[in-house]
Amino acid sequence: MLPHINYWAVLLATLSSMIVGSIWYTPKVFGNYWMKAAGVTPSGNARDAVRPIITTVIVSFITAWVLAGAVFISQHFYGGGFLGNAIITAIVLWAGFTATRFITHDAFDQRPTGLTVLNVAHEFVTVVIMAVLIGVWPPA
Predict the structure, then answer these.
(1) Would you say the C-alpha torsion 108, 112, 114, 118 has a positive or negative sign?
(2) 60 neighbors 18 (Cβ within 8 angstroms)
(3) Which pLDDT score is estimated for 42?
(4) CA 107, CA 29: separation in Å to the nearest integer?
(5) What single-letter DSSP state applies at residue 49?
(6) The pLDDT of residue 48
(7) Rounded Cα gap, residues 32 and 28, in angstroms
(8) Within its chain, how far is the Cα of 107 from the centroid?
């Protein structure tokens, strides 16, 4: 069985990831704390952000695409509402893969706990918003 995916929803979910990140890591929200905790010093050159932004777009698309496929499989297996399945699937995948991997890597990298919590929370918000967008716009 190949999952049916609404690629418009995937593209919108990808865009939502960029919007969430832009807000989350702005200096007036969590950006100043993130830069201090992560040891990041902005260069002041906007060109330095191009590569990370391109990388983020690509991995956000992959995340949204995989999430959409997993939601379709979940829906096929469990039935019920597509939106509810999307949100539950996103939370389970976040907890089982994203959060656990962040916590493990950050523990070995000896990163501050607050930085780990900040980044894991960002990923949670990102995938839940992606799930809502995918969930309200199921494949035809």
Answers:
(1) negative
(2) yes
(3) 85
(4) 25
(5) G
(6) 85
(7) 7
(8) 21
Domain ranges of the chain: 7-136
Q: Are 67 and 92 in contact (CB under 8 A)?
A: no
Say how far apart CA 81 and CA 135 lie, in whole Å: 9
Is 93:70 a contact under the CB 8 Å cutoff? Answer: yes
Give the H or E element holding residue 4: none
Residue pair 133/18 in contact (Cβ under 8 Å)? The answer is no
Rg of the Cα trace of the chain? Answer: 16
| Residue 54 CB neighbours (<10 A) | 10
**Tokens describing residue 114:** 């607050």
Confidence (pLDDT) at 93: 98
* Maximum alpha-carbon separation in the chain: 50
**Residue whose C-alpha is closest to residue 106's, from 97, 98, 115, 93:** 115
Digits of tens for pLDDT over the chain (140 positions)? 789 999 999 999 999 999 999 999 999 999 999 999 999 998 888 888 899 999 999 999 999 999 999 999 999 999 999 999 999 999 999 999 999 999 999 999 999 999 999 999 999 999 999 999 999 999 98
